[in-house]
Automatic annotation (TrEMBL):
Gene3D superfamilies: 3.40.190.80, Fructose-1,6-Bisphosphatase, subunit A, domain 1 (3.30.540.10). Its EC number is 3.1.3.25. Keywords: Magnesium, Metal-binding. The keyword Transmembrane helix does not apply. InterPro entries: Inositol_monophosphatase-like, Inositol_monophosphatase_CS. It is an enzyme of class 3 (hydrolase). This is inositol-phosphate phosphatase. Pfam families: Inositol_P. It comes from the Bacteria. It comes from Pseudonocardia zijingensis. The lineage of its organism: Bacteria, Bacillati, Actinomycetota, Actinomycetes, Pseudonocardiales. It catalyses: a myo-inositol phosphate + H2O = myo-inositol + phosphate.
């Protein structure tokens, strides 16, 4: 199977002024370090704030979620005045910003704790995610992985670094590799059967940001997600693209930030993974 290149695929990414990239990376890295310290100190010790929605009993919100997002918004408002911030806990509302964030040339997108149920349980699989996004997709992406004491950072055209060390994916077939899947129960069962027949393993651990990040780091051959939100994946999508992974939607069309289904794969794995996905959902 080959992936058909859609003639309506996104054009080449827009150029970004070098000073903006450097400043955004520096500020995002500082915020990620702040978040990592807070998450490390409080994971497994904080109780959820209120009751999770009945539709998803694990969709908790904690004081840490809110505190980290407010801190992020304060810093970004001071460093990048007029640039909207879109976040999981407070939506597109931020001091001095236009609520029409998606119409602005740039916007920041933050998930203060991706994998909150894991964070509450003390399970070491949660992250802080921050991205600067323009009309071409993620410009800067930073993920804090507190349990592994790692900060992953990328910027358009500048590659990826893990605690300062450059990272690049290696092409390979999916057989013998792991695929991170964040899907509903019905989708997971079908996709797992298809992957098992292709001799690949599935891992579902509850953080979309870290699932995609594993592909950028070369730990997983692919990640398949559905039902995600922009703040779940924007930072990790930047890492994946800059590391040399392929990012497509559920139909196999290249898309830097797919909205519904998102498939991220190392070169050499995409065709098989996309075929399994189609077989499981078709």
């Amino acid at each position: 199977m080959t992936v058909q290149q859609d003639p309506g695929a996104p054009p080449a990414p827009l150029p970004v002024e070098a000073g903006l990239l450097s400043h955004a990376l520096e500020v995002a890295g500082r915020l990620a370090n702040d978040a990592a310290e807070v998450i490390t100190a409080t994971a497994g010790r904080e109780r959820p704030d209120g009751t999770a929605p009945a539709a998803n009993p694990f969709d908790w919100v904690t004081d840490t979620d809110r505190t980290l997002e407010r801190h992020t918004r304060r810093v970004l408002a001071a460093e990048f005045p007029g640039v909207p911030v879109v976040g999981e806990e407070y939506g597109a509302l931020t001091e001095g910003a236009d609520p029409g964030a998606h119409r602005a040339p740039y916007r920041w997108v933050v998930d203060p704790v991706d994998g909150t149920a894991n964070y509450v349980a003390g399970f070491p699989w949660c992250a802080y995610s921050l991205a600067l996004v323009d009309a071409s997709g993620p410009v800067v992406g930073v993920i804090a992985d507190p349990s592994r004491a790692q900060i992953y950072a990328a910027a358009r055209g500048r590659g990826v670094r893990a605690n300062g060390v450059p990272v690049r994916v290696v092409p390979r077939a999916p057989a013998g590799g792991l695929i991170c899947a964040e899907l509903g129960p019905d989708r997971t069962a079908g996709f797992t059967r298809q992957a098992a027949a292709g001799h690949a393993g599935i891992r579902s651990l509850g953080s979309s940001a870290l699932a995609v990040t594993q592909v950028a780091l070369g730990h997983a051959v692919a990640a398949v997600l559905e039902g995600h939100r922009e703040w779940d994946v924007a930072g990790a999508a930047c890492l994946a693209a800059e590391a040399g992974a392929v990012v497509v939607d559920g139909d196999g069309r290249p898309d830097p930030l797919p909205r519904d289904t998102m498939i991220v794969a190392v070169p050499g794995a995409l065709d098989a993974v996309l075929g399994w996905w189609r077989a499981a959902t078709g």
